[in-house]
Structures are given as structure tokens and as C-alpha cells.
């Protein structure tokens, strides 16, 4: 995974304005994470961002949670995300770092189905 892109069609969001635009759009909470989604109205690739506040825990816990969220997005967004959409995955206190990985993937798929309605 390079710094600017996760895969060819999956780009990592870096700018604060992109995160704020997603915060004003649709959101779906699950036990393992909160997912925000926004249709940019473009026919471009999928963009994704990750965040974990200090509520998630110390730096070790936050980094572990973000690594797990990045892997879920890498595995599932190319097949289940929609081109032209932005997604922000937000870590949940206790749950993101400790939840079984298969359950985390199921949470993300559930959130995507709800966002795309």
C-alpha cells in the first residue's frame, strides 16, 4: 500500500475538507465502527479515510484499530464500494481493536448496504 493510494481504484483521503464533507453526509453506525458515506457525483474512483479519536485508547490501541479498518476497506471496498463515493471509517471505543475480524467485515458490509439505499 503506497502513501497516496491503497489500490488503483481506492484512494486515501488526506484533506480535512474531504473528511468534513463526509461528516455532513450519510452515516451508519455498527458495533465495530461508524461509516460515513458521501456521493461526490463524479465518476471517479473510490476514496476512503480513517480516523480514531483518543476515546479509542492510547496510541497503540488507536493504531491497531486504524490498521484493522484499513484492512477491512482494502478487502471489501473494491467489490462493494461505489465509484465516485467517499467513505470515512471511524473507530469505536473498545470494539474496533478487540472485535473478531470476520465480525468487523460483516459490520462494514452492513453499513455499506444501509448507506447505499
From TrEMBL:
Top-level enzyme category: hydrolase
Gene Ontology CC terms: ribonuclease P complex
Annotated catalysed reactions: Endonucleolytic cleavage of RNA, removing 5'-extranucleotides from tRNA precursor
Keyword RNA-binding carried by entry: yes
Enzyme Commission code(s) on record: 3.1.26.5
GO MF terms, alphabetically ordered: 3'-tRNA processing endoribonuclease activity; ribonuclease P activity; tRNA binding
Keyword field: Endonuclease, Hydrolase, Nuclease, RNA-binding, tRNA processing
Physiological role: RNaseP catalyzes the removal of the 5'-leader sequence from pre-tRNA to produce the mature 5'-terminus. It can also cleave other RNA substrates such as 4.5S RNA. The protein component plays an auxiliary but essential role in vivo by binding to the 5'-leader sequence and broadening the substrate specificity of the ribozyme.
Pfam families the record matches: Ribonuclease_P
Subunit structure: Consists of a catalytic RNA component (M1 or rnpB) and a protein subunit.
The protein, known as: Ribonuclease P protein component
InterPro entries: Ribosomal_Su5_D2-typ_SF (IPR020568), Ribsml_uS5_D2-typ_fold_subgr (IPR014721), RNase_P (IPR000100), RNase_P_CS (IPR020539)
Top-rank taxon, per record: Bacteria
Recorded coiled-coil stretches: none
PROSITE patterns: RIBONUCLEASE_P
Record family assignment: Belongs to the RnpA family.
GO biological process: tRNA 5'-leader removal
Amino acid at each position: 500500500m503506497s502513501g497516496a493510494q491503497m489500490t488503483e481504484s481506492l484512494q486515501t483521503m488526506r484533506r480535512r475538507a474531504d473528511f468534513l464533507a463526509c461528516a455532513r453526509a450519510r452515516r451508519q453506525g455498527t458495533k465495530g465502527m461508524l461509516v460515513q458515506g458521501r456521493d461526490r457525483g463524479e465518476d471517479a474512483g473510490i476514496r476512503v479515510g480513517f480516523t480514531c479519536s483518543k476515546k479509542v485508547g492510547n496510541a497503540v490501541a488507536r493504531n491497531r484499530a486504524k490498521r484493522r479498518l484499513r484492512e477491512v476497506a482494502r478487502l471489501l471496498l473494491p467489490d462493494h464500494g461505489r465509484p465516485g463515493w467517499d467513505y470515512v471509517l471511524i473507530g469505536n471505543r473498545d470494539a474496533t481493536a478487540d472485535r473478531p475480524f470476520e465480525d468487523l467485515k460483516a459490520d462494514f458490509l452492513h453499513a455499506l448496504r444501509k448507506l447505499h439505499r
